[in-house]
Design goal:
The complex is a heterodimer of chains A (271) and B (174). Chain A has 271 residues and is α/β, with parallel strands linked by helices. Helix content of chain A is 30%, strand content 30%. Chain A has a domain at 158-269: Nucleotidyltransferase, domain 5, CATH 3.30.420. Chain A contains 7 helices and 13 strands. In chain A, a hairpin with a 2-residue loop joins strand 9 and strand 10. Chain B has 4 helices and 4 strands. The radius of gyration of chain B is 43 Å and the shape is rod-shaped. Classes of the chains: A alpha/beta (271), B alpha+beta (174). The A-B interface holds A 70, 114, 116-119, 127-129, 131, 136, 150-155, 158, 161-162, 165-166, 168-170, 188, 191-193, 269 and B 2-14, 16.
Chain lengths: 271, 174
């Protein structure tokens, strides 16, 4: 197999779920194998059980010897909006500023986390994301025995937004990504993120919808009708649509049942 | 309608993806390079074809038989020219005069010219070796010859008078 054009294994890593999909190299995107398993004893505070389950799955030759693109569930990511500075900063300065904003929002718990910053033009706000310091190294340690090379590691909200952004308006709209037990929402202004909210959800769909409605009322309180676009796995979408009012649910024409919803988003974001 | 810009946040590969314009530019570059390559290849083929045609015409003009014939004729002409340039009259007159000067003590047996080297080889018989040296000195004074040298001398044992046969080589002056 050419090291420059290898098969890809897409991996979704969440506190209670691990999903994999193998995509053979070629011009046409297709899935040759897919699986989705539950993680026993997993939680937002500990990625160990999910990584252990992933390592078990990777013992199968189906998932070995490829490039790995990993989507990390949002409970293990923290986001913030980094405002522009009066004086231009170099890359290290901007990262330090992002770390300061993250610590201000989430406390000192994130001070040692890895931070990546969006490469925004000078004078524009940019998005920063942090993940636990040991997550990437633990992930690489789990992938290495299966000869999987980590080529991408993105948080789910970014993947979901990039997958749907062509269906979103540029101004005054909310993009909400729902996943098992977690809600992430970004507000769009002038084509960019200007506000981010994240919340742990209860297992009760009704409560989750009330939270969504609360977001809607937040935008309406500002004097304009903000549209709310919701991205969610099919099982959550079906349950929530029965009661949701004023929400625009994002659904793909081709559902792509062969792989997990989160990995289908990754494929669409890279298309 | 313009859409929100994509967000690029990647912990493993924090690099920008190529834009559609960049991709198009890349494809255009590849297409242009391919076109230049094809054009260059056809130009090379055309040049090779023309070289072949020129070579064929040149070959046709100088066929091997004709060339060999001409060369042989040229050699023959040069040889004849060299032989015609030998000053036979002066040479023979001078050699005759030298023999007369020696009061019939020298008998000329053979004269062989070498036109390529401007050399004449003289074979003669004398009664004794001093006569041979006297003949050589006479030839050295000749205005027609230069550098006369005694190449060999041999006493004829089969001759009852034991005459000495000498061979002298000398250049002639043009």
């Amino acid at each position: 197999m050419s090291p420059l054009w290898r098969d890809e294994v897409a991996i979704y890593l969440a506190p209670r779920k691990v999903a994999l999909a193998r995509r053979p190299r070629g011009l046409k995107a297709r899935v040759s194998a897919a699986t989705e398993v539950a993680v026993a004893g997993g939680g937002a505070g500990d990625c160990g059980p999910a990584l252990a389950r992933l390592a078990e799955l990777l013992l199968e030759p189906t998932w070995q010897d490829a490039a790995a693109r990993v989507v990390i569930a949002d409970p293990w990511a923290r986001y913030c909006i980094v405002p522009p500075t009066a004086t231009p900063l170099d890359a290290e300065g901007r990262r330090a500023q992002a770390r300061y904003v993250l610590e201000d929002a989430y406390g000192e718990g994130v001070s040692e986390w890895n931070v990546v910053l969006e490469d925004a033009p000078p004078g524009r706000i940019s998005v920063a994301c942090a993940m636990a310091e040991g997550l990437e190294s633990a992930l690489i340690a789990a992938l290495s025995p299966a000869r999987l090379k980590l080529v991408s590691m993105q948080p789910q909200l970014v993947v979901a937004f990039n997958a749907w952004r062509r269906r979103l308006p540029r101004d005054d709209a909310w993009f909400i990504a729902l996943e098992d037990g977690w809600l992430s929402a970004v507000h769009l202004a002038d084509g960019a993120w200007d506000r981010i909210h994240a919340a742990r959800l209860s297992g009760e769909p009704r409560v989750e919808l009330e939270r969504l409605q609360a977001f809607g009322s937040l935008t309406r309180a500002a004097g304009c009708v903000g549209r709310m676009f919701v991205e969610a796995p099919p099982w959550m979408r079906e349950r929530a649509k029965r009661t949701g009012v004023g929400l625009e649910w994002l659904e793909a024409e081709d559902a792509g049942d062969a792989q997990a919803h989160e990995l289908a988003l990754l494929m669409r974001a890279n298309a | 309608m313009k859409r929100p810009r994509s967000v690029q946040l990647d912990f493993a590969a924090p690099v920008r993806r190529s834009s559609a314009a960049g991709l198009l530019l890349c494809l255009a570059g590849i297409a242009a390079a391919t076109a230049v390559g094809v054009e260059f290849r056809s130009a090379l083929a055309e040049r090779a074809r023309l070289d072949g045609a020129v070579e064929a015409i040149a070959d046709h003009r100088r066929s091997p038989v004709e060339t060999a014939g001409r060369a042989a004729a040229a050699n023959e002409f040069a040889k004849m020219s060299r032989e015609l340039n030998i000053p036979w009259t002066k040479l023979l007159a001078e050699l005759e005069a030298a023999s007369n000067d020696m009061t019939s003590q020298v008998s000329l047996l053979h004269i062989e010219p070498d036109a390529d080297k401007h050399l004449v080889r003289i074979t003669a018989e004398v009664r004794s070796l001093p006569d041979a040296l006297a003949y050589l000195e006479r030839l050295q004074r000749s205005p027609v010859l230069r550098y006369p040298m005694l190449e060999s001398h041999e006493r004829r044992k089969d001759d009852p008078e034991h005459a000495v046969q000498i061979k002298i080589a000398a250049e002639w002056r043009s």
